[in-house]
Design brief:
It is a single chain. By secondary structure, the protein is mainly alpha-helical. 72% of the residues lie in helices and 1% in strands. The protein has a two-stranded antiparallel sheet with strand order 1-2. It is globular. Mean pLDDT is 89; it is low at 1-11.
Protein backbone atom coordinates (compact mmCIF):
# COMPACT_ATOMS: atom_id res chain seq x y z
CA UNK A 1 0.00 0.00 0.00
CA UNK A 2 2.82 2.16 0.83
CA UNK A 3 4.07 2.41 -2.87
CA UNK A 4 6.38 5.26 -3.87
CA UNK A 5 4.28 8.15 -5.29
CA UNK A 6 4.32 8.45 -9.06
CA UNK A 7 5.94 11.64 -10.43
CA UNK A 8 3.81 12.37 -13.48
CA UNK A 9 5.31 15.03 -15.75
CA UNK A 10 2.12 17.06 -16.08
CA UNK A 11 2.01 17.65 -12.32
CA UNK A 12 5.71 18.06 -11.67
CA UNK A 13 5.54 21.84 -11.62
CA UNK A 14 3.51 21.63 -8.40
CA UNK A 15 6.50 20.29 -6.46
CA UNK A 16 9.36 22.06 -8.23
CA UNK A 17 9.17 25.09 -5.93
CA UNK A 18 9.41 22.94 -2.80
CA UNK A 19 12.29 20.90 -4.23
CA UNK A 20 14.19 24.09 -5.12
CA UNK A 21 13.58 25.68 -1.71
CA UNK A 22 14.75 22.58 0.12
CA UNK A 23 17.68 21.66 -2.15
CA UNK A 24 20.50 22.94 0.15
CA UNK A 25 18.97 21.30 3.22
CA UNK A 26 18.21 18.06 1.39
CA UNK A 27 21.81 17.93 0.16
CA UNK A 28 22.88 17.75 3.79
CA UNK A 29 20.21 15.13 4.54
CA UNK A 30 21.43 12.99 1.63
CA UNK A 31 25.00 13.23 2.94
CA UNK A 32 23.81 12.07 6.36
CA UNK A 33 21.92 9.16 4.82
CA UNK A 34 24.93 8.00 2.82
CA UNK A 35 27.24 8.28 5.83
CA UNK A 36 24.95 6.33 8.17
CA UNK A 37 24.43 3.49 5.67
CA UNK A 38 28.09 2.52 6.03
CA UNK A 39 28.88 -0.86 7.55
CA UNK A 40 31.78 -3.32 7.65
CA UNK A 41 29.32 -6.00 6.51
CA UNK A 42 29.34 -5.51 2.71
CA UNK A 43 25.77 -6.65 1.99
CA UNK A 44 24.29 -3.96 4.27
CA UNK A 45 25.34 -0.85 2.32
CA UNK A 46 24.83 -2.68 -0.98
CA UNK A 47 21.25 -3.65 -0.19
CA UNK A 48 20.42 -0.33 1.45
CA UNK A 49 21.83 1.65 -1.47
CA UNK A 50 19.78 -0.47 -3.90
CA UNK A 51 16.62 1.04 -2.40
CA UNK A 52 17.74 4.35 -0.90
CA UNK A 53 19.63 5.30 -4.06
CA UNK A 54 16.85 4.21 -6.44
CA UNK A 55 15.77 7.74 -7.28
CA UNK A 56 12.87 8.24 -4.89
CA UNK A 57 11.85 11.82 -4.18
CA UNK A 58 12.62 11.53 -0.44
CA UNK A 59 9.18 12.98 0.13
CA UNK A 60 8.95 12.21 3.84
CA UNK A 61 12.33 13.73 4.85
CA UNK A 62 11.54 16.63 2.52
CA UNK A 63 8.39 17.12 4.56
CA UNK A 64 10.42 17.22 7.80
CA UNK A 65 12.71 19.92 6.40
CA UNK A 66 9.83 21.92 4.91
CA UNK A 67 7.83 21.77 8.15
CA UNK A 68 10.77 23.16 10.12
CA UNK A 69 11.28 25.97 7.61
CA UNK A 70 7.57 26.76 7.26
CA UNK A 71 7.32 27.64 10.96
CA UNK A 72 9.36 30.75 10.20
CA UNK A 73 11.59 30.08 13.20
CA UNK A 74 15.14 31.17 12.45
CA UNK A 75 18.20 29.23 13.50
CA UNK A 76 20.29 26.16 12.74
CA UNK A 77 18.50 23.12 11.36
CA UNK A 78 20.88 20.51 12.75
CA UNK A 79 18.14 18.66 14.63
CA UNK A 80 15.52 18.68 11.82
CA UNK A 81 18.12 17.48 9.30
CA UNK A 82 19.02 14.50 11.47
CA UNK A 83 15.35 13.82 12.06
CA UNK A 84 14.75 13.97 8.30
CA UNK A 85 17.46 11.34 7.71
CA UNK A 86 15.89 9.21 10.45
CA UNK A 87 12.50 9.48 8.74
CA UNK A 88 14.00 8.22 5.47
CA UNK A 89 15.58 5.25 7.25
CA UNK A 90 12.28 4.35 8.95
CA UNK A 91 10.49 4.59 5.62
CA UNK A 92 13.09 2.50 3.78
CA UNK A 93 13.05 -0.14 6.52
CA UNK A 94 9.27 -0.45 6.29
CA UNK A 95 9.50 -0.81 2.50
CA UNK A 96 12.04 -3.63 2.81
CA UNK A 97 9.82 -5.45 5.30
CA UNK A 98 6.64 -4.69 3.32
CA UNK A 99 8.06 -6.11 0.09
CA UNK A 100 8.99 -9.37 1.81
CA UNK A 101 5.51 -9.70 3.32
CA UNK A 102 3.76 -8.83 0.04
CA UNK A 103 6.14 -10.71 -2.25
CA UNK A 104 6.50 -7.56 -4.37
CA UNK A 105 8.60 -7.79 -7.52
CA UNK A 106 9.38 -4.10 -8.08
CA UNK A 107 10.15 -1.16 -5.82
CA UNK A 108 10.90 2.33 -7.11
CA UNK A 109 11.23 0.88 -10.60
CA UNK A 110 13.91 -1.65 -9.61
CA UNK A 111 13.83 -5.34 -8.77
CA UNK A 112 12.77 -5.70 -5.14
CA UNK A 113 15.75 -6.26 -2.83
CA UNK A 114 14.46 -9.56 -1.42
CA UNK A 115 14.56 -11.09 -4.91
CA UNK A 116 18.28 -10.28 -5.17
CA UNK A 117 19.64 -10.81 -1.64
CA UNK A 118 16.87 -12.94 -0.15
CA UNK A 119 14.10 -12.28 2.33
CA UNK A 120 16.25 -12.80 5.43
CA UNK A 121 18.85 -10.22 4.37
CA UNK A 122 16.15 -7.70 3.43
CA UNK A 123 14.46 -8.00 6.82
CA UNK A 124 17.75 -7.75 8.72
CA UNK A 125 18.96 -4.73 6.74
CA UNK A 126 15.60 -3.15 7.48
CA UNK A 127 16.32 -3.72 11.16
CA UNK A 128 19.77 -2.13 10.69
CA UNK A 129 18.15 0.97 9.18
CA UNK A 130 15.69 1.19 12.10
CA UNK A 131 18.69 1.14 14.45
CA UNK A 132 20.41 3.91 12.50
CA UNK A 133 17.21 5.96 12.62
CA UNK A 134 17.06 5.76 16.40
CA UNK A 135 20.74 6.67 16.71
CA UNK A 136 20.08 9.85 14.73
CA UNK A 137 17.03 10.70 16.82
CA UNK A 138 18.95 10.29 20.08
CA UNK A 139 21.76 12.49 18.77
CA UNK A 140 19.36 15.42 18.40
CA UNK A 141 18.54 15.41 22.10
CA UNK A 142 14.91 16.21 21.20
CA UNK A 143 12.94 13.82 23.36
CA UNK A 144 9.53 14.91 22.05
CA UNK A 145 10.68 14.33 18.46
CA UNK A 146 12.10 10.95 19.47
CA UNK A 147 8.74 10.06 20.99
CA UNK A 148 6.89 11.14 17.86
CA UNK A 149 8.96 8.97 15.52
CA UNK A 150 9.15 6.03 17.92
CA UNK A 151 5.37 6.06 18.23
CA UNK A 152 5.05 6.23 14.45
CA UNK A 153 7.25 3.13 14.04
CA UNK A 154 4.93 1.24 16.36
CA UNK A 155 1.77 2.46 14.63
CA UNK A 156 3.15 1.43 11.23
CA UNK A 157 3.78 -2.10 12.55
CA UNK A 158 0.26 -2.26 13.96
CA UNK A 159 -1.08 -1.23 10.56
CA UNK A 160 0.90 -4.00 8.87
CA UNK A 161 -0.50 -6.61 11.25
CA UNK A 162 -4.06 -5.30 10.91
CA UNK A 163 -3.74 -5.49 7.14
CA UNK A 164 -2.53 -9.09 7.37
CA UNK A 165 -5.52 -10.06 9.50
CA UNK A 166 -7.90 -8.57 6.92
CA UNK A 167 -6.03 -9.60 3.75
CA UNK A 168 -8.28 -10.49 0.79
CA UNK A 169 -11.36 -9.54 2.83
CA UNK A 170 -14.06 -8.17 0.52
CA UNK A 171 -16.19 -7.36 3.58
CA UNK A 172 -13.66 -4.77 4.74
CA UNK A 173 -15.52 -1.50 5.28
CA UNK A 174 -14.27 1.98 4.43
CA UNK A 175 -13.54 2.93 8.05
CA UNK A 176 -11.35 -0.11 8.71
CA UNK A 177 -9.60 0.40 5.38
CA UNK A 178 -8.85 4.02 6.26
CA UNK A 179 -7.62 2.88 9.68
CA UNK A 180 -5.15 0.56 7.96
CA UNK A 181 -3.81 3.15 5.50
CA UNK A 182 -3.68 5.80 8.22
CA UNK A 183 -1.40 3.52 10.23
CA UNK A 184 0.65 2.17 7.34
CA UNK A 185 1.13 5.35 5.34
CA UNK A 186 -0.31 8.56 6.73
CA UNK A 187 1.18 8.19 10.22
CA UNK A 188 4.75 8.57 8.93
CA UNK A 189 3.76 11.63 6.88
CA UNK A 190 2.22 13.10 10.04
CA UNK A 191 5.22 12.22 12.20
CA UNK A 192 7.67 13.57 9.63
CA UNK A 193 6.00 16.99 9.62
CA UNK A 194 5.39 17.02 13.37
CA UNK A 195 9.01 16.10 14.14
CA UNK A 196 10.28 18.87 11.86
CA UNK A 197 8.28 21.42 13.82
CA UNK A 198 9.41 19.98 17.16
CA UNK A 199 12.99 20.08 15.90
CA UNK A 200 12.91 23.90 15.89
CA UNK A 201 10.87 24.19 19.11
CA UNK A 202 7.78 25.50 17.32
CA UNK A 203 4.81 26.46 19.50
CA UNK A 204 2.25 23.69 20.14
CA UNK A 205 -0.35 25.16 17.74
CA UNK A 206 2.11 24.98 14.84
CA UNK A 207 3.23 21.48 15.79
CA UNK A 208 -0.40 20.27 15.84
CA UNK A 209 -1.17 22.04 12.55
CA UNK A 210 1.78 20.42 10.79
CA UNK A 211 0.85 17.00 12.14
CA UNK A 212 -2.69 17.48 10.77
CA UNK A 213 -1.23 18.59 7.45
CA UNK A 214 1.01 15.53 7.21
CA UNK A 215 -1.73 13.09 8.20
CA UNK A 216 -4.18 14.37 5.59
CA UNK A 217 -1.45 14.66 2.96
CA UNK A 218 -0.49 11.03 3.57
CA UNK A 219 -4.09 9.89 3.13
CA UNK A 220 -4.39 11.91 -0.08
CA UNK A 221 -1.22 10.32 -1.45
CA UNK A 222 -2.27 6.79 -0.52
CA UNK A 223 -5.73 7.04 -2.03
CA UNK A 224 -4.24 8.53 -5.19
CA UNK A 225 -1.79 5.60 -5.30
CA UNK A 226 -4.73 3.20 -4.92
CA UNK A 227 -6.33 4.87 -7.93
CA UNK A 228 -3.10 4.87 -9.93
CA UNK A 229 -2.81 1.09 -9.60
CA UNK A 230 -5.87 0.86 -11.83
CA UNK A 231 -5.16 3.88 -14.02
CA UNK A 232 -1.37 4.30 -14.12
CA UNK A 233 1.58 2.74 -15.91
CA UNK A 234 4.57 0.81 -14.56
CA UNK A 235 7.06 3.52 -15.51
CA UNK A 236 5.18 6.15 -13.52
CA UNK A 237 4.19 3.96 -10.59
CA UNK A 238 7.63 2.58 -9.70
CA UNK A 239 5.95 -0.84 -9.65
CA UNK A 240 3.82 -2.84 -12.07
CA UNK A 241 0.37 -1.40 -12.79
CA UNK A 242 -2.11 -3.88 -11.35
CA UNK A 243 0.24 -5.11 -8.62
CA UNK A 244 -2.33 -4.42 -5.90
CA UNK A 245 -4.91 -6.51 -7.75
CA UNK A 246 -2.29 -9.15 -8.56
CA UNK A 247 -1.50 -9.49 -4.85
CA UNK A 248 -5.19 -9.66 -3.95
CA UNK A 249 -5.05 -6.37 -2.03
CA UNK A 250 -8.39 -4.82 -1.16
CA UNK A 251 -7.86 -1.12 -1.77
CA UNK A 252 -10.60 1.52 -1.78
CA UNK A 253 -11.33 1.50 -5.55
CA UNK A 254 -11.65 -2.29 -5.50
CA UNK A 255 -13.89 -2.25 -2.41
CA UNK A 256 -16.14 0.37 -3.99
CA UNK A 257 -16.30 -1.52 -7.29
CA UNK A 258 -17.14 -4.79 -5.53
CA UNK A 259 -19.92 -3.07 -3.56
CA UNK A 260 -21.32 -1.40 -6.66
CA UNK A 261 -21.41 -4.66 -8.64
CA UNK A 262 -22.84 -6.78 -5.83
CA UNK A 263 -25.15 -9.45 -7.16
CA UNK A 264 -23.62 -9.21 -10.65
CA UNK A 265 -19.87 -9.76 -10.23
CA UNK A 266 -19.69 -11.56 -6.88
CA UNK A 267 -18.24 -14.71 -8.43
CA UNK A 268 -15.49 -12.70 -10.18
CA UNK A 269 -14.39 -10.90 -7.02
CA UNK A 270 -14.66 -14.05 -4.91
CA UNK A 271 -12.45 -16.01 -7.32
CA UNK A 272 -9.82 -13.33 -7.93
CA UNK A 273 -9.54 -11.77 -4.46
CA UNK A 274 -10.85 -14.14 -1.78
CA UNK A 275 -9.65 -17.37 -3.43
CA UNK A 276 -6.63 -15.79 -5.15
CA UNK A 277 -7.33 -17.57 -8.46
CA UNK A 278 -6.37 -14.95 -11.03
CA UNK A 279 -5.83 -15.58 -14.72
CA UNK A 280 -4.58 -13.50 -17.63
CA UNK A 281 -7.13 -10.87 -18.48
CA UNK A 282 -8.60 -10.63 -14.97
CA UNK A 283 -6.86 -7.33 -14.24
CA UNK A 284 -8.26 -5.85 -17.44
CA UNK A 285 -11.74 -6.89 -16.31
CA UNK A 286 -11.19 -5.54 -12.79
CA UNK A 287 -9.93 -2.25 -14.21
CA UNK A 288 -13.03 -1.94 -16.41
CA UNK A 289 -15.26 -2.49 -13.37
CA UNK A 290 -13.33 -0.02 -11.19
CA UNK A 291 -13.53 2.68 -13.85
CA UNK A 292 -17.00 1.83 -15.15
CA UNK A 293 -18.68 1.88 -11.74
CA UNK A 294 -17.17 5.27 -10.89
CA UNK A 295 -15.07 3.70 -8.10
CA UNK A 296 -11.91 5.27 -9.48
CA UNK A 297 -13.47 8.74 -9.55
CA UNK A 298 -14.91 8.31 -6.06
CA UNK A 299 -11.49 7.34 -4.71
CA UNK A 300 -9.94 10.45 -6.26
CA UNK A 301 -12.75 12.57 -4.78
CA UNK A 302 -11.85 11.24 -1.33
CA UNK A 303 -8.18 11.94 -2.00
CA UNK A 304 -9.11 15.51 -2.96
CA UNK A 305 -11.05 15.99 0.27
CA UNK A 306 -8.03 14.94 2.32
CA UNK A 307 -5.79 17.27 0.29
CA UNK A 308 -8.17 20.15 1.05
CA UNK A 309 -7.99 19.36 4.77
CA UNK A 310 -4.20 19.31 4.57
CA UNK A 311 -4.15 22.79 3.00
CA UNK A 312 -6.62 24.12 5.56
CA UNK A 313 -4.34 23.00 8.40
CA UNK A 314 -1.58 25.27 7.09
CA UNK A 315 -3.59 28.38 8.03
CA UNK A 316 -1.87 28.23 11.43
CA UNK A 317 1.49 28.97 9.76
CA UNK A 318 2.82 32.35 8.65
CA UNK A 319 2.45 33.15 4.94
CA UNK A 320 5.68 32.27 3.13
CA UNK A 321 7.11 30.55 0.06
CA UNK A 322 7.43 27.41 2.19
CA UNK A 323 3.76 27.41 3.14
CA UNK A 324 2.74 28.00 -0.49
CA UNK A 325 4.97 25.11 -1.60
CA UNK A 326 3.35 22.80 0.97
CA UNK A 327 -0.08 23.80 -0.35
CA UNK A 328 1.09 22.93 -3.87
CA UNK A 329 2.33 19.56 -2.61
CA UNK A 330 -1.17 18.74 -1.38
CA UNK A 331 -2.58 19.57 -4.83
CA UNK A 332 0.14 17.43 -6.45
CA UNK A 333 -0.85 14.45 -4.30
CA UNK A 334 -4.14 14.22 -6.17
CA UNK A 335 -3.46 15.81 -9.56
CA UNK A 336 -0.78 13.23 -10.45
CA UNK A 337 -3.56 10.62 -10.55
CA UNK A 338 -6.18 12.74 -12.30
Amino acid sequence: MDAAPAPLVRSRGQVDALVRLAAPDMGRVDALILDRMKSDVPVIPLLAEHLVGAGGKRLRPLLTVAAARATGIEGALDAPLKLAAAVEFIHTATLLHDDVVDGSKLRRGKVAAHLIWGAASSVLVGDFLFARAFELMVETGRMRALGILARAAGVISEGEVLQLTRAHDLNLDRDIYLKIVTAKTAELFAAAAEAGAEGVDAPPAMVAALRAYGLNLGLAFQLADDALDYGGRSETLGKNAGDDFGEGKVTLPLLLAAARTRGREDAFWERTITQGQRTEGDFRRARELVIGTGALGATLDEAGAFADRAKAALSALPASDWRAALEDLADFAVSRAA
